[in-house]
Amino acid sequence: MSDRSINVGGNFIGNAMTGDHNIIAAQSDGVETYLRSVLSELHDQFSDTSDTFRIEILQSRLRSDMAKNPVLRGQLKSALLNASEALLGVLTDNPFVKVSAAMLIGWLK
């Protein structure tokens, strides 16, 4: 197994042990931290825009980050499939825009 650090957009996501299935909780925590950071940053930049525009901006940012770091896509998908309550809380309770899990799953495709 190899130990590797995961860094997305300057945000430390966590350590992953390849082949180790006991990292789901750590990944969920890292994804939650990552999303909080992105949502806060976007809120600071685009707080006076419509919800439709905010959703488009968030979708664009997440797709860009996932293209730069494919590990992020897997972590998001894993957290969603494992119904991470913390992740769902971040998606629905933040100052930028409310996003459903189904919407985020659609962006992962």
Describe it.
- This protein is mainly alpha-helical and 109 residues long.
- It has one domain.
- It is 63% helix and 12% strand.
- It contains five helices and two strands, in the order E-E-H-H-H-H-H.
- The chain has a two-stranded antiparallel sheet.
- Strand 1 (3-8) and strand 2 form a beta hairpin.
- The model is unreliable at 1-27 (pLDDT under 50).
Please estimate the helix content: 55-70%
- Average pLDDT for all residues: 75
Radius of gyration: 14 Å
**Structural class based on helices, strands and sheet pairing:** mainly alpha
In order across it, which strands form the biggest sheet?
A: 1-2
Defining key terms:
about 110 residues; mainly alpha; globular
Sequence-ordered SSE layout with sheet pairings:
Blueprint: E1 3-8, E2 11-17, H1 24-46, H2 51-68, H3 70-81, H4 85-92, H5 101-108
Helix pairs in contact: 1-2, 1-3, 1-4, 2-3
Provide a brief overview of the structure:
This protein is mainly α and 109 residues long. The chain contains five helices and two strands; from the N terminus they run ββααααα.
